[in-house]
């Protein structure tokens, strides 16, 4: 049985790595990696392949950057050729980036079974490109693997048949669990001169926060204010850097004392930065989950979240409208332990989600063999 796993942008790599590893434990599954090239830099892509032990992609589509339509269209045209050549039984897509939706649509139009990992998440905000990608991908998927309870509720509400939906946990947490020890060996705190639990880690790249001058000015103001009482470490996303330079704000940032500006970090380095930080300030999707698992308070600078479990039982707080005063007061509350965070880990975020997914797929394709195979896997540890 042949399965094509699609990766395109940075948050896809750590989700596909454990899945590919899990598929390889079954001799009758041929698992291939297709990289669309939506992210292409050494620091946004190659370093993740190296650190995650992912093999060189079987196909690299090299689509690069562009408008949403350009990226989506280029991925579709190239991916169709791969499907024609490979004739896979299954296509697997993860998350919510443009490559996810583009490959999902191509696969389904060619009658290939489609798997969506991280299905059912909804922010309710259709202005986010990711939300459209999620809705469109889920609506045509044959296997929908869900990370948190809210996903089950959304899919049921949208009329997706129960038979197609599986609550399996979170493959992103699989990678975190798998690489946490390796990351601890980097000694990054010493290298950067940082004191554990005495700095703020910041990331910011959502179009709504960085693409307009007035919003990005607020981000800079927020950094200035926080830096007055805490050291900040800020790996700058290429999108954010582009707009900081365009709006002539980058130099202002460089002159803020107590702020360490970094290039986008590798996966292992970033785990270390998250784990050792006192508070995280972000607008990322995945970091809300990683910080929940690591039990680090996280302030998410967005109006909505598609990952509500990180708020209901985890350590995440949502701060709408880029309200700088609210950010600072919530930040101070966090430092003083005045928030009602519960620091619990959501169900099935245990490092085994990819194994569950592979077992379900294998069982569907090889019902007779799967019991024996599963026994062998557990005997081999
Ligand atoms: C994309 C995803 C977003 C995800 C994010 C993680 C979509 C709609 N968005 O957003 O969900 O959270 O990735 O990073 O798919 N660039 C580089 N080098 C690269 C890649 C991009 O310099 O390797 C530049 C591009 O030229 C562009 C900007 O970064 O100017 C944005 O890249 P793009 O892939 O369009 O969107 P992201 O903001 O990264």
Can you characterise this structure?
The chain is of the alpha/beta class and 381 residues long. The chain has 2 domains: 2-170 and 348-376, Rossmann fold (3-Layer(aba) Sandwich), CATH 3.40.50; 182-335, Rossmann fold, CATH 3.40.50. 49% of the residues lie in helices and 15% in strands. It has 18 helices and 13 strands. A 7-stranded parallel beta sheet has the order 3-2-1-4-5-6-7, sandwiched between helices. The protein has a 6-stranded parallel beta sheet with strand order 10-9-8-11-12-13, with helices on both faces. Helix 1 (10-24) packs parallel to helix 2 and helix 7 (171-184) packs across helix 13 (267-276). The radius of gyration is 21 Å and the shape is globular. The two termini are 24 Å apart. Bound molecules: uridine-diphosphate-N-acetylglucosamine (UD1).
Sum up the structure in keywords.
single chain, alpha/beta, Rossmann fold, 2 domains, 6-stranded parallel sheet, 13 strands, 15% strand, globular
CATH superfamily of the largest domain: Glycogen Phosphorylase B
Estimated radius of gyration? 21 Å
| Poorly predicted residue ranges | none
Q: Can you name the CATH architecture of the largest domain?
A: 3-Layer(aba) Sandwich
- Name the helicity range: 40-55%
**SS element count, helices:** 18
Bound small-molecule species: uridine-diphosphate-N-acetylglucosamine
Q: Bin the strand percentage.
A: 5-15%
Largest sheet: 7 strands, parallel
Mean of pLDDT: 96
CATH topology of the largest domain: Rossmann fold
Strand order of the largest sheet: 3-2-1-4-5-6-7
Number of domains: 2
């Amino acid at each position: 049985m042949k399965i094509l796993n699609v990766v395109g942008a940075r948050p896809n790599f750590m989700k596909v790595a454990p899945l590919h590893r899990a598929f390889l434990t079954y001799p009758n599954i041929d698992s291939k990696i297709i990289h669309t090239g939506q992210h292409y830099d050494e620091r946004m892509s190659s370093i993740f392949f190296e650190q995650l032990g992912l093999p060189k992609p079987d196909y690299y589509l090299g689509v690069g950057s562009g408008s949403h339509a350009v990226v989506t269209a280029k991925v579709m045209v190239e991916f169709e050729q791969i499907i024609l050549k490979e004739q896979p039984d299954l296509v697997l897509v993860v998350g919510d980036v443009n490559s996810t939706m583009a490959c999902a649509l191509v696969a389904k139009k060619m009658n290939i079974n489609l798997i969506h990992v991280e299905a059912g998440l909804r922010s309710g905000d259709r202005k986010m490109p990711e939300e459209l990608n999620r809705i469109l991908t889920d609506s045509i998927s044959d296997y929908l693997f869900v990370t948190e309870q809210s996903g089950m509720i959304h899919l049921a509400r949208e009329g997706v048949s129960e038979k197609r939906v599986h609550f399996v946990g979170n493959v992103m947490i699989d990678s975190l669990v798998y690489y946490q020890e390796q990351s601890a060996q980097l000694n990054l705190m010493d290298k950067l001169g940082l004191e554990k639990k005495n700095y703020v880690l910041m990331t910011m790249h959502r179009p709504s926060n960085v693409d307009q001058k007035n919003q990005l000015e607020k981000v800079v103001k927020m950094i200035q204010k926080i830096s007055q009482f805490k050291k900040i470490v800020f790996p700058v996303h290429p999108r954010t850097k582009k707009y900081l330079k365009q709006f002539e704000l980058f130099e202002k940032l460089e002159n803020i004392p107590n702020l360490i500006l970094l290039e986008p970090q590798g996966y292992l380095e970033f785990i270390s930065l998250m784990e050792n930080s006192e508070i995280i300030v972000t607008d990322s999707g995945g970091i809300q989950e990683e910080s929940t698992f690591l039990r680090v308070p996280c302030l998410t600078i967005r109006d909505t979240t598609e990952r509500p479990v990180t708020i209901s039982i985890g350590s995440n707080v949502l701060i709408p409208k880029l309200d700088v005063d609210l950010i600072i007061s919530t930040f101070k509350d966090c430092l003083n332990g005045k928030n009602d965070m519960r620091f619990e880990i959501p169900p099935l975020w245990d490092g085994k989600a990819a194994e569950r997914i592979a077992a379900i797929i294998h069982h569907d394709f090889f019902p007779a063999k799967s019991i024996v195979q599963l026994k062998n896997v557990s005997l081999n540890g």
